[in-house]
Amino acid sequence: MAVNYTTQDGVAVITLNNPPVNGLGLSTRAGIVEGIERAQNDPDVKAIVLTGAGKAFSGGADITEFNTPKATQEPTLATVIKIVEGSAKPVVAAIHSVAMGGGLELALGAHYRIAAPGAQIALPEVKLGILPGAGGTQRLPRAIGLEAALNMIVSGAPVLSEKLADSGLFDEVVQGDLLEAALAFARKVGAKQGPHPKVRDRKIEHPNAAGFIQFARNSVAAIAKNFPAPHKCIDAVEAGVQNGFDKGLAFERECFIALVQTPESRALRHAFFGERAASKIPDVPADTPLRDISRVAVIGAGTMGGGIAMNFINAGIAVTLLETKQEALDRGLATIRKNYEASVKKGKLKPEALEERMALITPTLSYDHLRSADLIVEAVFEELGVKEQVFKRLDEVAKPGAILASNTSTLDVDKIAAFTKRPQDVVGLHFFSPANVMKLLEVVRGKETAKDVLATVMQLAKKIRKTAVVSGVCDGFIGNRMIEQYVRQALFMLEEGALPAQVDKAIEKFGFAMGPFRMSDLAGNDIGWAIRKRRYQERPDIHYSKIADRLCEMGRFGQKTGGGWYDYKTGDRTAYPSQVVDEMIGAFSKEINGERRKISDEEIVERLVFALVNEGAKILEEGIASKASDIDMVYLTGYGFPLYRGGPMLYADTVGLYNVERAIRRYAARPNGDAWQLAPGLAKLVAEGHGFNG
Ligand code: T1G
After folding, report:
1. What is the residue-wise DSSP string for 85-135?
2. Mutation test residue for ligand 1: of 22, 26, 63, the one with most atoms within 8 Å of CB
3. Which of 55, 466, 498, 564 is least surrounded, with the fewest CB atoms within 10 Å of its CB?
4. pLDDT (tens digit, 9 = 90+) per residue, 598-624?
5. How much distance in Å is there from the Cα of 123 to the middle of ligand 1?
6. Which candidate, 191, 220, 196, 216, places its Cα nearest to that of 206?
7. 528: pLDDT confidence band, cut at 50, 70 and 90?
8. Which of 450, 471, 492 marks a domain boundary?
9. What integer pLDDT is reported at residue 437 of this predicted model?
10. Are 90 and 169 in a shared domain?
11. Which residues are catalytic?
């Protein structure tokens, strides 16, 4: 039963019991109404306590019900709250751990609120692309004032209950047994004559409400460029201030219904569930026993190794940092310290925390010091021979059961595992540079990688605040394999008539953080050059544009050489279109007898994004990724894909796979069309009338 009902000394206790977070799904909503009505009809009951079992008072509306009939089936949350508020007997909400979204709105409908300290109080709807849809925009300003309420509603950020102790939201914040305190409070108010206080009857006091609301609009305009919800949050609060509670409530409802249908909200909800779904591996049971990871070792103190080490140190996990030469080790440590000093300067890290973190590093030049490590991550030079030496050495020194991880971004993890006598303990942990900043972690599962190794690293990823996505073994895993097709299209379009700045601008207007040419200049054009040279050997059948090789032969590796696809000025990262490069591109087209033509921004976006989608479909078919949302999480957290579009696979669903297939077939019939081998899986979904995400 989603709600339990008991009585204690004249107090009815209604307990939400819908694990994991007491989501206010239909059965829970109906259970609350049943409990309230039962209490009204019981003459022995003088008051009611509303509380939550388990890890939350309530995490809000059940977002798995959104856009399904249950979401709007009576009793809706608005109806439930009206019934709670209309109860003749006082309702006391007893709040612990989490009161979020609809959970907080429910508590605001009660007559009194008692909280335990440490509870997360929030109206996070805006983070899902919607707004509080059960009176939150009307009651919270009346409970804690216009400014505090608007800040909470527009940011969606949680505030700890004790910080709201004097805000007017709670009647008491109590240490000790919350239920006992709530029962005592209920008995006290139950003895009083009604009517009992309703938040909706309070006034919204503010000396200059219109001025503050305008200030809120200005501040939101900057951060909410592609998201309609923050603006609607302000509109709904303003409606209540100007026209009173009931009109404000009706307007809030209108805004909610409009927002919940938007593609932005669908994208944000997709990302919310995608983040959580990524940690679930279909064939690895959720209760797989984990290996204990107390001590980590990192081999290589370069850019990647240092960044990787910081992730563990930041989570309070001690790290042994191994290098081959003292000066490399010293350089690595100095870089880590410099990164922390920068955080201290920005006020993101307390000065004393800097030394605490540095003290967690044990630098060494000896493999012998890795013997006690539970997890060893190598971040050495990206060359199979070097990896072979490292893993053979690790096989000798690492203790039984230690997890041996490679940070390789392009090499075959199965080959690396085969350098050891314990392939079941080998896994890929592909961090993205800068490793201490980028959220994405590709966990590369070798064919022998043990299930408990996977379960352990997925749990550890959460601890070091990474979004971990499992990839099978293939060239480029998920992210880089797809980006290779994206770059191929970008290069072909230069041959056919576009210029770097036009391509970058078009895809940045679509929402990417950075276009392919600015990205390549930042990462270094020589990196792509090395990969293509390998490709020409391994896969001579694949047709690549050679235009980027021409750029590299000019020594234009990007920012690091003062020029790449763009020109750069010393100390200035601004990318200036380069006449030299544009002329080279024009000459290149002539050399290959390519007729340069005008390419529309729409074609640029379609070819870049659908190249990702088509390769993503192949990755799904091959089982390299187990679900489309995993691919989306890779692109949202590692490749600057715009969050409000939900990732390439969700975007394809939004466009309609039928239209994606038609576009791919169109490009396949044109110059450079051999790059467009339509993924059979995509065509199959179109034939079945399905999308990638159902
Ligand atoms: N509905 C359904 N499932 C939810 C859920 C929700 N609101 N919140 C969490 N879950 C699932 C989650 O998918 C995961 O599932 C499990 O619970 C544990 O979550 C009318 C319309 C509450 C702070 O936005 O912020 O109310 O993977 O891993 O770290 O105005 O979950 O185990 O199968 O995150 O302890 C507004 C979103 C809804 C809160 C707990 N509420 N949730 O964090 O656990 S809209 C939210 C969270 C609304 C009203 C509107 C967090 C948490 P699984 P978890 P956690």
Report:
1. HT-SS-EEEEE-SEEETHHHHHHHHSSEEEE-TT-EEE-GGGGGTS---SS
2. 63
3. 55
4. 999 999 999 999 999 999 999 999 999
5. 12
6. 216
7. confident
8. 471
9. 94
10. yes
11. 105, 125
Q: Which atom of ligand 1 is nearest to the CA of 260?
A: 21
Q: How many CA atoms lie within 13 A of 480 on its CB side?
A: 23
Give the residue whose CA is nearest to atom 36 of ligand 1. Answer: 101
Q: Six-digit token pair at 29?
A: 């909503």
> Atom 10 in ligand 1: which residue has the minimum CA distance?
21
Q: Which of 18, 21, 273 is the best mutation target for the ligand 1 pocket, counting ligand atoms within 8 Å of the beta carbon and taking the most?
A: 21
Cα–chain-centroid distance for residue 253? 28
Residue 555: CB partners within 8 Å, gap ≥ 6? 561
Q: Please give the tally of structural domains in the chain.
A: 3
Residue nearest to atom 39 of ligand 1 (CA): 59
Looking at the structure, tell me whether residues 457 and 488 fall in a common domain. no
| Most distant CA atoms of the chain, gap in Å | 93
Q: How many Å apart are CA 324 and CA 299, to the nearest integer?
A: 9
What span, in angstroms and rounded, lies between the C-alpha atoms of 310 and 312?
5
Residue ranges lining ligand 1, Cβ < 6 Å: 20-21, 23, 56, 59-64, 77, 98, 100-102, 105, 120, 124-125, 128, 132-134, 136, 273, 276
What is the pLDDT of the chain when averaged over all its residues? 96
Rounded distance from Cα 272 to ligand 1 centre (Å): 9
* CA 206 / ligand 1 centre spacing (Å): 33
**Residue 288 within any structural domain of the chain:** no
Cβ neighbors of 383 (< 8 A, separation 6 or more) are none
- pLDDT band at residue 63 under the 50/70/90 scheme: confident
Q: How far is the CA of 132 from the centre of ligand 1 (A)?
A: 14
Ranges assigned E (strand) in 436-547: 440-444, 467-471
Q: Is residue 243 part of a domain?
A: yes
Shared domain for 25 and 166, answered yes or no, is yes
- Distance of CA 21 from the midpoint of ligand 1 (Å): 6
Contact 45, 87 (CB under 8 A): no
For a pLDDT cut of 90, what percent of the chain falls above it? 93
User: ω before 195 within 30° of 0 (cis)?
Assistant: yes
Sign of CA dihedral 448, 453, 454, 457: negative
Q: What CATH number does the domain containing 45 carry?
A: 3.90.226.10
